[in-house]
Design brief:
Structural class: alpha/beta
Shape: globular
Order of helices and strands: EHEHEHEEE
Strand content: 35-45%
Radius of gyration: 16 Å
Distance between the termini: 17 Å
Number of strands: 6
Amino acid sequence: MFINLSNHPMHGWDQKQLDAARVLGDYSIEYKFPDINPNWNIDTVEGLAHSIFVEIAEEMIDPNKLAPNETIWIHIMGEMTFVHAFIKLCEDIGSIGSHNIICVASTTKRIVKMKDDKKIASFEFETFRKY
């Protein structure tokens, strides 16, 4: 299973990234990355990470969604303190039932072009990297 927890919905991904996600898991679920208020304290951020983890875990309990011992791959990109808190939860818990949890980041090539003295940056997906 592949879960996308980011601000970048899969319908906007290029074919290379979609194919790489399918290699990790045939079945995909998307969760919108939460809006993180910059004034929140870390306890609030960690509490939100815990709530989203529980929401994902409850959905994974459905035996029709996962084969026995199937790995749950979570692509997580976004506000760094939330990402850290969420990954730490995943690492501390380690699994949901018989399903290991592995968090990954997308890696990209940064391509910079100059146009009329302005830098124009674009990003080209390369691979998923385990946190």
